[in-house]
Amino acid sequence: MMKYAVEVDGLVVHRGRNDVLRSISTTVPTGAIVGLLGPSGSGKTTLMRALVGAQRITAGTATVLGLPAGHPRLRSRIGYVSQSPSVYDDLTTRQNLAYFGRVVGAPSRDVDRVLDEVDLRPQQHDLVRDLSGGQQNRVSLGAALLGSPELLVLDEPTVGLDPLLRRDLWTLFRSIASQGTTLVVSSHVMDEAQRCDRILLLRDGTLLADVTPAELLERTGTADADDAFLALVGAAA
Amino acid sequence: MNPRLTLATAGRVLAQIRHDPRTIGLLVLVPSLLLGLMAWIFTDTAVFDVVGPALLALFPFITMFLVTSITMLQERRSGTLERLMALPLGRFDLILGYTLAFGALAVVQALVAVGFAVQVCGLDVAGDPWLLVVVALVDALLGTTLGLMASAFARSEFQVVQFLPALVFPQVLLGGIFVPRDRMPDVLHAISDWLPLSHAIEALQAVSSATDGTGTVVRETVIVAAFAVAFVVLGAVTLRRSTR
Ligand SMILES: Nc1ncnc2c1ncn2[C@@H]1O[C@H](COP(=O)(O)OP(=O)(O)OP(=O)(O)O)[C@@H](O)[C@H]1O
Ligand SMILES: [Mg+2]
Predict the structure, then answer these.
(1) How many Cβ atoms from other residues are within 10 Å of residue A39's Cβ?
(2) Does A63 sit in the ligand 1 pocket, CB within 6 Å?
(3) Which residues in chain A are contacts of B91 at CB distance < 8 A?
(4) Containing domain of residue B30, as a range?
(5) Quick one: what percent of chain A has pLDDT higher than 70?
(6) What total number of domains does chain B contain?
(7) Do A82 and B82 touch (CB under 8 A)?
(8) What is the pLDDT of residues A173-217, one digit of tens each?
């Protein structure tokens, strides 16, 4: 097995006249959960889109599961959840999962497994447009879990969820990771950072910190992640 | 390209449309209602027998163009396209899946519209009415594939609607409905030769009139189908897996 699921070296992304990512270098160990944190507009989504091949890279390299990001052979090995739910709102939950399952070539029983994992079995026959925002997010997340990909790239998967559901999802993420899957998860919620194996803190397209949660608190001399975030992001400003 | 994924996509698109009765109504009933209205307007004149076949090309073409371009645009805007492009789905699987799904609807549309025009409105058809169905189907596919391609160049539903006056109306005006194309000024006639709808209309007129043989029908239908294939290819190659 590869040591690193993701290796990024000197990654630069320009979008229009914006320097969105300015030379990012980091690695993500296989089987780890890595949290991507940073203020709004810091480049989290752009970095994740670069990893799944949806964002053209200006300079530097991004190697994913041993192949250059965007390589066709990666398409069946990565699960990606974009920031806004990307599912068909005029299909039912089950129809959405069935279609995406067919696209990734997952066995049809995968739909039932995923329905339970994202806790949407009661809503399986409801049209997605009739679901709540948090439920729609979970349909989108469920679609990425089909076919058990080796790398999950999740852009703010827990937005709009209550603390109980958030806890359940993080338990799910942990159990997925324990089977050797690597997760890159962005979030605005600092207590979620504590649940990650490593934290990448982005600001203005640069990497401010690449640490474990304990190191983050130690380095900033703060008691909780919120304060650590403020200390680091504020100090760099 | 993978037939399994093409079919899965077609099935998904049809499932989406099944949840949208209005779209089904627009595609299946509206062309017939408009044909009926035209027949009524021109009661007791010979006009309907002249323009009827052209309208049989026009209404399916326009309704299919509208529905497919907006459906495809929603796919782009909802983020599902970005998701699909990160998955092992070929660009042709997607575009052909859409074409198949709307093609299936076009079969129903053509049957209903031709049946209504001939049985209810009393459209005089010299040729085989089934040939009329086939040609109307190919014309609807032309609208479908043009819509799929056009959506690549639109950023909003509003911009799609702007394509009607820009892309569709000129084809209608030059298509030979108002003035037969060979009586137009030379320049306009030459331009109209390059517009797919002109050939679609000509094919239907050839089926309906006694003078033209099947040769014209086949030639014009092949031209229309060639345009449709070109639009499928353009629609697929304009899909991008990554953005700048
Ligand atoms: N299409 C675009 N063209 C030009 N610049 C863009 C485009 N999309 C995003 N940007 C810029 O890229 C920067 C980073 O955006 P990104 O979406 O990666 O941020 P983010 O960290 O995910 O923010 P949030 O937490 O709000 O989701 C922003 O400053 C934004 O202005
Ligand atoms: Mg973002």
Answers:
(1) 15
(2) no
(3) none
(4) 3-238
(5) 98
(6) 1
(7) yes
(8) 999 999 999 999 999 877 888 899 999 999 999 999 899 988 888
